[in-house]
Amino acid sequence: MEVGHTQIDLHIHTRESDGSLLVKDVIREAFEREVRILALTDHETTNGVQEAIALSREYNIKIIPGVELVTAYKGQEVHLLGYFNFAGFLHSDLQSRLKELREQRTALAYDMVKRLQRDGYTLKWSEVERIANPEGAVSKSHIMRALHDHENGTIQWPSIAKLFQPYGVAYLPFLEHSFEEAVQLIYACGGVPVLAHPGLIGNQELVGELLSYRPIGLEVYYGYWDQRETLIDHYEKLAKSKALFTTGGSDFHGLNGPVTIGEVDVPLSCAQDLVSYLKLDL
After folding, report:
1. Which GO molecular-function terms appear in the entry (predicted)?
2. Which of 27, 181, 229, 238 has the fewest CB atoms within 10 Å, i.e. the most exposed one?
3. Residue 123's domain spans which residues?
4. Within-domain flag for 170
5. Residue 216 sits in the same domain as residue 84
6. DSSP assignment, residue 178?
């Protein structure tokens, strides 16, 4: 692995889940932004990883296989990142469970659209399907984009987001996959779990509990749009006593998003610790 100044991004989404760019375009964008180590972490799928690995040789970018899972803990939605070696992400148990989860999340998204319709919105499910990848999980991100397009931009993004937040008309948390089960699944398939963007967890008292369940990593370096430096400093300190190691990334979903690829300053040690744990040959 390269030493010195190396741009790192360990949290990136593509069109395989709820990102807006194809895998090839993500790799090209990463290269142009001088990112040399990245992880694809699409929701409930690793379908883009093999393509990324093939393209990475052309662009001299190191790829770490990953996935992001929506899990539930004490009735709250908690996101968990899983990182794997080049055999682990193809594990049959992982792929079988991911397929089930994609189907469950799509069914939940359908119910969200029905809730919007009952509240007077005329958005059709077919409009959401046109935005989503047919092999991926349909999520609230797809519905939000479809609703924005359907309303011709007359509803501002903050107003759309509120519809899907607790007490919003379309709010339906995904509670089919427990945090504990997700952690066990990742470990059973040779991976390592990392608690994603802890600053977005509603009840901050849960963060310590989640880190204490089993040794897991903590995503410290993240593109929070508010109080970024304060939150990163807080989780750096928490990670020293509670986490297996730290990671970080942009949580990139598209060029129109609030944070772009490589924008978050992630220490090289994050990638080194992850690669060492997984025994990856990068």
Report:
1. 5'-3' DNA exonuclease activity; 5'-3' RNA exonuclease activity
2. 229
3. 100-163
4. no
5. yes
6. B
